Structure prediction request, 177 residues.
Amino acid sequence: MKKLFLMALVCALAITAKPVQAQNTLIKANLLTPLFQTGSFYVEQVIKEDKSVQLGVFFTQIADVSGYGITPEYRVYLSDTPAPDGFYVAPFLSFMKFTIEDKDPDYGYKGKSTNFGGGLIAGRQWIFKEKVSFDIFIGPEYTNGNITVERGTEEQIDDAGYNGWLPRGGIALGLRF
Prediction:
């Protein structure tokens, strides 16, 4: 239910936004996430001269953990140049859902983890030739998760239900249209 609410909120902000310029939508991919067997993608929509909303999604498959996440954020650009070019800060929320499974017939386990969180990132985005974006960001995130055990013990799948502070960062390359 919370996931649907967050998605609806981001969509509503994007739909009610008035275009500031002809090219106010960006589609980006995080260049660092493939190192962690993850794909992370973003859609950013400029809503005012110094503000935008962004929706990020990721998918992962690492060892016995697979899942996805959704991260809406609200960016405030602090530079003299209009959004989406310049320095920014962005509060964000996050929702993550993972399946943890080891199929070993004797010692296997299976469970699910749901995590909610939020935080604040700071970053810098450059726009080259009015079409190409390069975005670098970093900041802290606090997350709280719960685990449902289907087979095995909670200790076997405990790491996926992480509670506490995590770093969030990335380097994204994208197109503006």
Summary: Residues 79 and 86 are 5 Å apart (CA to CA).
